[in-house]
Structure formats: structure tokens, C-alpha cells
Specification:
Helix content: 40-55%
CATH superfamily: Aldolase class I
Distance between the termini: 9 Å
Shape: globular
CATH topology: TIM Barrel
Radius of gyration: 17 Å
Main location: cytoplasm
Enzyme class: isomerase
EC number: 5.3.1.1
Keywords: Cytoplasm, Gluconeogenesis, Glycolysis, Isomerase
CATH architecture: Alpha-Beta Barrel
Subcellular location: Cytoplasm
Largest sheet: 8 strands, parallel, barrel
Number of helices: 11
Strand content: 15-25%
Number of strands: 8
Length: 253
């Protein structure tokens, strides 16, 4: 049985006061959600705050990105070693905003995945197609290529200690959400692709849905057999909404 994950991605949002409010609230919720892994991925400047506020609770935390380098003359980057030192469990890699705004290729994302994994973090590999690719029926082709780049570099066994987050780009921040049936079909297709390399790894890896997942859509999405929780954007900035999503995961655990 795969333990569900509900993970917030705060993106470029937060103040000292809002981070304090959210972490205190989510720490309490996480303590009551023993059959769900609850986490938040914060802007790097706030990770130390999250650590101090969440330590001792069941809430886990991570970073929104991770560099391929551990140290050196790389101004503005965040080393996986440094992130680990601040108690991070997770590192998101390959988010569509990183791929799009920073021109991160599949190979760059795979290198970041490896860097996170090699330094004790759990990579959260974001994959997903654009609206044009969806309309052209290329959803699984895109997802497979993004996963294959990681397998080529790290091997299939790397997914024993990683998470995949399927986020259709056309649904991120748009209010559009893939129907539970569409999302399930993609998640199943991803798992079937992984099975061509290792059935054991495919059965164990947790695949999250992202892309405007909210309190209203979460219950039916999380009831699907191949959806193991969510990577939550805007709703993770609202205590009531994120709590409701966690409750939906608990109900399907």
C-alpha cells in the first residue's frame, strides 16, 4: 500500500507572518494525519523558518528547486547539501515553470534529480504536457520522455526513493483541472511505462497529481487507484483548503 502524499508548493509567495501561520497550522494537521505524508516546499529564503517552526511535528518540508552543484562559484543557486542541512526531505525538480522560464531541458532536470538523490533528498520529478501537446494526443509521449531522461542517467531503481508529480501545464494556475478519468488514465500510463523497466519499482512509486487540484476536486482525484496524492499550488497557501485536501487524502489512504 502506497502512503499518500499531500505536498504544498508555495512558489514565489510568502511573508514571515504568513509562513508562521501556515506552518503552525499545517504542523497540527500533519500530526493528525498519520496515514498521509504532509509536506510544504517553500522559497529558499524561508526554509530555515519552516525548519524551526515544524521541527518536532509530522510536517515535512523541502525546496522548490535544487542545483546540480553542491558548492562553488554558482551565485544564486541552492545546494542539495545545504538544503539537507536545513532539514529538507524533498526537492522539487523539473517544474514546468523552471522548464519554461529557465529553459531547463530533460537532461538538466535529470541532473538535478541525481544531485538531490545523491545528497539524501527525495526528488519530486514534475512532468506534464502543454495544452498543444494535450490536444495533439502527445501527453504520454511527453511524460515518458521526461521520465526516460532520469532513467537513462540514474537507472530505474532511483524511483525507489523518489516521487513523480504529473502536472498538465494547461491546468497549472488556470483553474482547469483534468477530470479524474483523464488524470487516472495518465497516471496509469506512467505506471505502465515504468513497469517496462521494473514492475516492483512501478508498483511502489508514488505518483501525485498537480494542476489546480483543490478542496473541491481532491476527493474524486484521490479516489483513483493510481493517484497517490497531490502537489498543491495556490490551495497550499490557504489553511482551510490545504486541510480539506489532506482530509481527502486521509479518506482514501
Amino acid at each position: 500500500m502506497r502512503t499518500p502524499v499531500v505536498m504544498g508548493n508555495w512558489k514565489l509567495n510568502g511573508t514571515k507572518s504568513t509562513v508562521t501561520e501556515l506552518v503552525k497550522a499545517f504542523s497540527t494537521v500533519a500530526n493528525d494525519a498519520k496515514n498521509v505524508d504532509v509536506a510544504v516546499c517553500a522559497p529558499a529564503v524561508f526554509i530555515g523558518m519552516v525548519e524551526s517552526l515544524a521541527t518536532g511535528s509530522n510536517l515535512k518540508w523541502g525546496s522548490e528547486d535544487c542545483d546540480v552543484h553542491t558548492q562553488g562559484a554558482f551565485t544564486g543557486e541552492n545546494s542539495p547539501v545545504m538544503l539537507k542541512e536545513f532539514g529538507c526531505t524533498y526537492a522539487i525538480v523539473g517544474h514546468s515553470e523552471r522548464r519554461g522560464y529557465h529553459n531547463e531541458t530533460n537532461e538538466v532536470v535529470a541532473a538535478k534529480f541525481k544531485s538531490a538523490l545523491d545528497n539524501g533528498l527525495v526528488p519530486v520529478l514534475c512532468i506534464g504536457e502543454s495544452e498543444a501537446e494535450y490536444d495533439a494526443g502527445k501527453t504520454l509521449d511527453v511524460c515518458k520522455a521526461e521520465i526516460k531522461a532520469v532513467i537513462d542517467l540514474c537507472g530505474i531503481e532511483a524511483f525507489n526513493n523518489a516521487i513523480i508529480a504529473y502536472e498538465p501545464i494547461w491546468a497549472i494556475g488556470t483553474g482547469k483541472t483534468a477530470t479524474p478519468e483523464i488524470a487516472q488514465n495518465v497516471h496509469k500510463g506512467i505506471r505502465e511505462f515504468l513497469k517496462t523497466f521494473s514492475a516492483e519499482v512501478a508498483d511502489g512509486v508514488r505518483i501525485l497529481y498537480g494542476g489546480s487540484c483543490n478542496a473541491k476536486t481532491a476527493p474524486e482525484l484521490f479516489s483513483q487507484p493510481d493517484i497517490d496524492g497531490g502537489l498543491i499550488g495556490g490551495a497550499s497557501l490557504k489553511v482551510a483548503d490545504f486541510t480539506a485536501i489532506i482530509e481527502a487524502a486521509k479518506a482514501n489512504a
